[in-house]
Design brief:
This protein is α/β, with parallel strands linked by helices. The protein is built from eight helices and six strands. It has a six-stranded parallel beta sheet with strand order 1-2-3-4-5-6. Helix 6 crosses helix 7. It is globular.
């Protein structure tokens, strides 16, 4: 990215220092983009250095990072493992499904690069979930996607519906509708249910937590999303 699209060091330091000066039980940083790994490993070295400098003794600081995993190097994976970053890795299903929309600038599918990134994360024991963008290409394939992730040994899943509109308010071609999302969740629940307790599907976990404890771990299930400040 060009310099104007990068968070400069002054802004980064002020953001970290002022957040860590507030009174929290846990300080949670979420690194998203675009693609945050474009910032490079030195950026995240600076992040954890600032967190160490400004964090109060005994405080807990956590970092989450959402990535397409195509730029995970061994050097970056080592840093993520050392500071216990929790990653969300975007993977939309088996290769033919994933590559429908996730292409590199030359038009080739990115599945192979994602798998290489996941292998590096596993090698360095970086914890990660897989985030599946449910779109027009995979909305009818819940069972196939779920089983594919299990075959890869991935037990922590997130599924999010892709709904975007053009300037006239018409759904874009890759979007899904409500009935399609409902059918996807029904099929997903049926295939997940025998694995409940072993496999985590974040949406189902959130529903169960609400039913059992009355607490909302997803902001979309509550009245607001102010925890994401």
């Amino acid at each position: 990215p060009s310099a104007r699209h990068r968070m400069c060091g002054t802004v980064l330091e002020r953001m970290v220092s002022t957040y860590l000066a507030t009174d929290q039980r846990t300080y949670s940083f979420g690194w998203q983009g675009g693609e945050p790994t474009l910032m490079g490993v030195d950026f995240f070295r600076k992040v954890v250095e600032l967190q160490g400098r400004y964090g109060r003794a005994g405080s807990i600081v956590s970092n989450g990072l959402q990535t397409n995993a195509t730029m995970i190097t061994d050097e970056l994976a080592r840093l993520l493992a050392e500071y216990r970053f929790l990653l969300g890795v975007s993977l939309d299903g088996p290769e033919d499904i994933h590559n429908t929309y996730r292409k590199n600038p030359k038009g080739s599918g990115s599945y192979g690069r994602v798998i290489e990134g996941i292998e590096r994360l596993n090698k360095h024991k970086v914890e990660f979930n897989v985030l599946v963008a449910v779109n027009a290409a995979n909305v009818g394939s819940a069972r196939r996607i779920y089983n594919h992730l299990l075959e890869m040994g991935i037990l922590y899943h997130q599924y999010i519906p892709i709904v975007e509109f053009d300037e006239q308010g018409r759904p874009l071609p890759f979007s899904i509708d409500g009935p399609g999302w409902g059918a996807f969740l029904k099929e997903l629940f049926d295939v997940w249910h025998p694995d409940a307790g072993r496999v985590s599907v974040r949406l189902f976990d959130a529903m169960l937590t609400y039913l059992v404890e009355g607490s909302r771990i997803l902001c979309t299930m509550g009245g607001d999303c102010r925890q994401y400040f």
